[in-house]
Amino acid sequence: TICLALGMREMVRRNALIRRLPAVETLGSATAICSDKTGTLTQNQMTVVRLYVGDMRVDVIGEGYQPTGGFFTDGRPINPHDHPDLLALLRGGLLCSDAELEKDETGYRMVGDPTEGALVVAAAKAGLWREEVEARWPRVGEIPFDSERKRMATVHRIDGHPPRGPEGERPGGYVVFVKGAPDSVLPRCTHILENGISVPMTPARRAHIENVNRNLGREALRVLAAACRLLPEEAEGLIRSQDPDRVEADLTFIGLVAMRDPARPEVRPAVEKARRAGIRTLMITGDYADTARAIAEDINLLRPGGKVVTGAELDAMTDEELREQIEEIDVFARVSPQHKVRIVEALKARGHIVAMTGDGVNDAPALKRADIGVAMGITGTDVTKEVAEMVLTDDNYASIVSAIEQGRVIYSNIRKFVFYLLSANIAEILTIFTATLMGYLPPLTPIQLLWVNLLTDGAPALALGMEKGDPDIMDQPPRPPREPVINRPMLRGIALISLSLTAIVLAAFLLEYRWGGGDMTMARTMAFAALALSELPLAYAIRSERYPLFRVGIFSNRYMQYAVLASVVLLLAAIYVLFLQPIFDTTPLGLREWSVLLPLIFVPAVVAEINKALSRYRAHS
Q1: DSSP letters along 576-605, please?
Q2: Which of 408, 469, 328, 332 is nearest to 30 (CA)?
Q3: How does strand 32-36 pair with strand 354-358?
């Protein structure tokens, strides 16, 4: 528990907050990470970079949330107010969103969804500000976005200049603005806006829009479609119905908005690190397959031959087919939160230890079913945080990999902690048992044993719990989840170390007792010092389960230096402080005794290094 608690402190420093202590150990066994794309693999800082209205492509410049930039066509700057369709697209995106662009002393900042924020900023670059536009087009109704419809609609009373109807008229009443996924919005459009007039949508027009959408997706751009519908004054009953099938029907297509959400710069190396560690990364996104594929290739997540599967294809698969194909799939596109549960189940059926990310309420079942549910600390809901084992305070995929690395380090430190204390405790039992069988009084008194167990070797054991881990810990495969903490190689090592400790303690005791005049107090002091001091070099040798001490670095764990110094001071106090000598049944040691002790105390550490060398040899052969 101490090692787990110390490790959790390090995880918090790495932006991973552990809500349940056993999850720390489970992290070290993770073999698959199912990660959302937006905000986790990408920066979640959307910027509109391109607009399509009719046959016109408009490039938008300017980064971030600063409402500065411009609009260009064929490299020439244009004024959106000279192009009614472009102005309608920007106005519709602004009105059909809830994000707010606020200004403070440091500049502009966005409050709300980043995707909607990008629309608000793009409109602001054209001089369209929410307060002014909504004063002329006040919102009177709304049908919120949901993951099934993949679109949102708002209804506004007309108090300005709406798009013209099929006959060029400007009817009064209301206008519905709809934005969402192109494959959700476009099928509901029967007309298209051309020069401010709604004209019938032709098959050729529809095919052209679909082709543009596909090409944008291949450029790793997120695409939204915008549409509108005019409603007469008497349509108040329809508006109040909030029925998407009725309100979002017979739409007029306005245009496409393409946004860029750049990948986090640290994600690509994190994906590589996870792959070296034997951990699969699967992208789960609501974006189009082409967009998801482009981003997956950009961050090197998509393996050669790896598949991209859409939600529709997933629905067509049986659970058995999904289990058979899951090892080949790297990206799930156009999926809903409900699909996540099936993905987790398929991975677990193949023996994976699964970490699943999520931020919305609908993600909660998948997070609960995963071995490690990972909630987003910034964008996540309280429900997902409640069911998750881990919360990312920075919503960053790289923090998951970092937490898994720390989970491996913690598990390794637990093994070292157990190895060290078990070796010492078994040696103490063997020492007293063997001496008794030989007809001698116990070499160690109860108070001496308590002193060693609680103070002298307690500090180095805690220092072992604060090791940083082997440098190649993420180049090793995940630990089998059912592997016991004390496996066969560890048992062999404990046996060798315990026997060597027993041998040097008995040697120090018998040499002094038999050839030192039979002074039991001096003999016990020798045994006491031999046991306590021999555990200190041993602690250094145990700092790595695989590598020799010189490769780990003697001084690389400063806590070990403090622990060893404290242990030596405590031992010397028990031997040389006058009022402690009667309590611990000790007597001061002279040069002769120290000349016998000093060579002996390094024997267990040498045995530990030899055991590691033999283990490395067996592993390579």
Answers
A1: H-GGGHHHHT-----HHHHHHHHHHTTHHH
A2: 408
A3: parallel
CA distances from 85 to 54, 82, 159, 226, 254 (A): 8, 9, 18, 11, 7
Residues 50-106 have pLDDT tens digits of: 999 988 999 999 887 888 889 999 989 999 999 999 999 999 999 999 999 888 777
Region of residue 110 (phi > 0: left; psi between -120 and 50: alpha; otherwise: beta)? beta
E strand or H helix at 348: helix 337-349
Residue ranges and CATH numbers for the domains of the chain are 31-42+264-395 (3.40.50.1000), 47-260 (3.40.1110.10), 410-620 (1.20.1110.10)
pLDDT, tens digit (0-9, with 9 covering 90-100), for 199-220: 999 999 999 999 999 999 888 8
Torsion of CA 324, 325, 330, 335, to 10 degrees: -100
- Dump pLDDT digits (tens) for 437-496: 998 899 999 999 999 988 888 889 999 988 888 888 999 999 887 888 888 889 999 999
Q: Which residue has the tokens 């450029």?
A: 219
Residue 569 and residue 451 in contact, taking contact as beta carbons nearer than 8 Å: no
How distant, in Å, are the alpha carbons of 161, 247, 334, 601 from that of 148? 32, 16, 10, 70
- The one-letter amino acid code at 524 reads R
Give dist(CA 392, CA 403) in Å, integer: 10
- By the 8 A CB rule, do 286 and 334 touch? yes
Q: Please check whether residue 421 is in contact with residue 469, taking contact to mean a CB–CB distance below 8 angstroms.
A: no
- So what's the pLDDT on residue 262? 87
According to DSSP, the residues that pair with 152 across neighbouring strands are: 179
What angle in degrees, to the nearest 10, is found between the helix axes of 84-95 and 114-125? 140
What's the CA angle centered on 160, arms 154 and 164, to 5 degrees? 80
Given pLDDT bands bounded at 50, 70 and 90, which one contains residue 167?
A: very low
Query: Cβ contacts of residue 284 below 8 Å, gap of 6+?
Result: 34, 35, 36, 37, 332, 335, 339, 340, 343
* Tokens describing residue 533: 């001091």
Residues 349 and 358: their CA atoms lie apart, in Å, by 21
Catalytic residues: 36
Compute the Cα dihedral for 290, 294, 297, 299 and give only its sign.
negative
